[in-house]
From TrEMBL:
Pfam family name, one: DUF1801
InterPro entries tied to this protein: YdeI_bac, YdhG-like
Name by which UniProt lists this protein: YdhG-like domain-containing protein
YdhG-like domain span: 17-115
Annotated source species: Flammeovirga agarivorans
SUPFAM superfamilies per UniProt: YdhG-like
């Protein structure tokens, strides 16, 4: 995914929803929010704190409230796009220009509430306590039979250990778990993380 330096660049290179993005952008620029780009997409902040973001997708244009869980959401328009992962972020999706335009006053109310919350220092407290590393039995058994593998695994970062543990645990069949272990043994011994190739 291309990383854009400016909001103009982001909108210019959007396949569709240009007009809708500009409508949302104009609404946001008529507030106290400062415009910027983070993670390659438009973001609107107060004192460098993320308040609202906008983004276009294949089937909709979205408005992101970074502390959306704190909004009253009386009209029930906000969704949690990643139910098990996201605590604070909420999204409002628009599938047509007409839908967006008819809701502009309501959008402004939600944005004003988000600004007020940020100005008052309200935010969802996220528990940063690291979860314990739980390794599947099959991987532990592999360590018993291969001490070099165990030593290499212990030298990996915690996040890489978690990735490998989840990769094996999520297999439903025992045979799949064992074939996954065979596949990752050379990677572990070479100090390579399961998802390293995607992080470059």
């Amino acid at each position: 995914m291309k990383k854009f330096e400016t909001v103009d660049d982001y909108i210019l290179h959007t396949d569709k929803w240009k007009e809708e993005l500009n409508i949302l952008r104009e609404l946001l620029l008529n507030t106290v929010l400062e415009e910027g780009v983070k993670w390659g997409a438009p973001i609107y902040m107060i004192n460098k704190k993320n308040v609202v973001g906008i983004a276009s997708f294949k089937n909709y244009v979205g408005l992101w409230f970074h502390q959306g869980a704190l909004l009253a959401n009386k009209e029930n328009v906000l969704i949690n796009a990643q139910e098990d992962k996201t605590k604070a972020l909420r999204q409002w999706r628009f599938e047509s220009k007409e839908e967006l335009i008819t809701q502009l006053n309501l959008i402004k109310e939600y944005v004003d509430e988000a600004i007020s919350n940020q100005q008052n220092g309200l935010e969802v407290k996220i528990d940063r306590t690291p979860k314990p590393l739980i390794l599947p039995n099959e991987l532990v058994d592999a360590f018993v039979n291969d001490k070099e593998l165990e030593t290499a695994f212990k030298s990996l970062t915690l996040s890489k250990k978690r990735e490998y543990g989840e990769y094996i645990s999520t297999a439903k069949r025992e045979a799949t778990k064992l074939s996954r272990i065979e596949k990752i043994i050379p990677m572990i011994k070479n100090g390579i993380g399961l998802n390293d190739k995607y992080k470059k």
